[in-house]
Amino acid sequence: MTPQRTSSPDTQMAAWQSALSTESGPRYLQIAEFIERSIATGSLRPGDRLPAQRQLAAWLGVDLTTITRGLNEARRRRLVDARGALGTFIAAPEAELRQRVDLSMNIPPPPAGIDMEALLREGMAQVLMRSNVDLLMTYHVGGGSPADCEAGAEWLNPMLGRVAHSRVAMCPGGQAALAAMILAFTEPGDAILSEPLTYPGLLHAAPQLGRRVEAVATDADGMCPDALDEACLAHRARFIYLNPTLNNPTTVTMPEARRRAIIAVAARHGARIVEDDPYWLFARHAPPPIARLAPTATCYIGTLSKCLSPGLRTAFVALPDEAARARFITALRSFSLMTAPIANALITQWIGDGNAVRLFEEVRTEARERQRIAAQTLGVSAGDGIHLWYELPRYWAPGELAAVASAEGLAVAPSTAFKVGEHSAAAIRISLGTTTNRGQLQAALRKLSALLADDQSARHEVLI
């Protein structure tokens, strides 16, 4: 839709009228999202001038305030530039101005339907109104206050059902929770069992703490029970790390029957399961978490960094019992005395007033839209989470592809960053949340798609 080039007024009006739906949220946000979609499809291009605001209001049958809010939201997303009396124009894509677009870091996408600045301002105002400032600025007991742990139990309820707050701890992120569990429930030299492709945070933490990670074979459903049984015997392991829902990096979700089989093997060996479960809420049809099936044998980590915002640096942990919680808190205090009370209070406030759920629902909506864009651009199936696992063509090695992409201004995570031992996989993880808007994501994915299709090996064949 480019009025100044080819479109007739009737065509322009029909295109804009298609922007509004009775089922897609506030109209001003629909206007901003229509502009974003049009940029992504090429209907609107940098430098195109938008119709006058009064003209748009007449076409869409809305008041001028709605149009102004929609264009302000588009400007906040850096989609348009306002040039005074000259009008409003489509902005040059931000991706072209940056040296690097990061598709390697797993973070939730910015929610299009939430004004984060306003949400933070409102949340902090409520915290300051309800709290004693002196208490917010002093030392607190590690693991969170009873109110914080009650909020944690409420947040974990969709996954685990009702959990006593005396079993819940609040800690500064999932990585800190994992490190504390390693310290609390293993000894130096112990083996930690995981899948051959696993969370890099485990691979960083274990050797620093004097433990080793050993791979357990997998199939299409995740960790194999027979292989786990053999590994428990071979390594005398009592600590099993799993990320069974929308696995990082492979996106595999372990079915319930396999989860129960893993629980049975762990029980035979007296092994503790650590379930790192940051993506369960994203999945449309997730099986019950392992911690719900076997609460007395499982330590559960539910971080907010992957579903709300990494800036919150908060995770909730559900331990099997109060004794295990005490051991965990003691280990946590060895390197993190407490989480920031102000952050705790904000999270507790948001969970209590429903804003945490509202924020997550907007993040999930945005994540699914980005999965749809990735599926269309890369020719893969759309998933539910915030990343996808892309198996490379035979002519690309993971490290080589990552290096070439980096030279082109794209960062992706090669499979080598996730491997345990000598395991090999020719794939990359593509994270969908780091770009500021969908248009920037689509531009980056198009560039990546062109690289993936480029068989550079063919250029080096010797012709005789």
From TrEMBL:
GO terms for molecular function: DNA binding; DNA-binding transcription factor activity; pyridoxal phosphate binding; transaminase activity. The keyword Protease does not apply. Keywords: Aminotransferase, DNA-binding, Pyridoxal phosphate, Transcription, Transcription regulation, Transferase. CDD domains: AAT_like, WHTH_GntR. InterPro entries: Aminotransferase_I/II_large, HTH_trans_reg/aminotransferase, PyrdxlP-dep_Trfase, PyrdxlP-dep_Trfase_major, Tscrpt_reg_HTH_GntR, WH-like_DNA-bd_sf, WH_DNA-bd_sf. Signal peptide: none annotated. Pfam families: Aminotran_1_2 (PF00155), GntR (PF00392). It comes from the Bacteria. Residues 25-93 form the HTH gntR-type domain. In the C-terminal section; belongs to the class-I pyridoxal-phosphate-dependent aminotransferase family. This is PLP-dependent aminotransferase family protein. It comes from Paraburkholderia dinghuensis. The lineage of its organism: Bacteria, Pseudomonadati, Pseudomonadota, Betaproteobacteria, Burkholderiales.
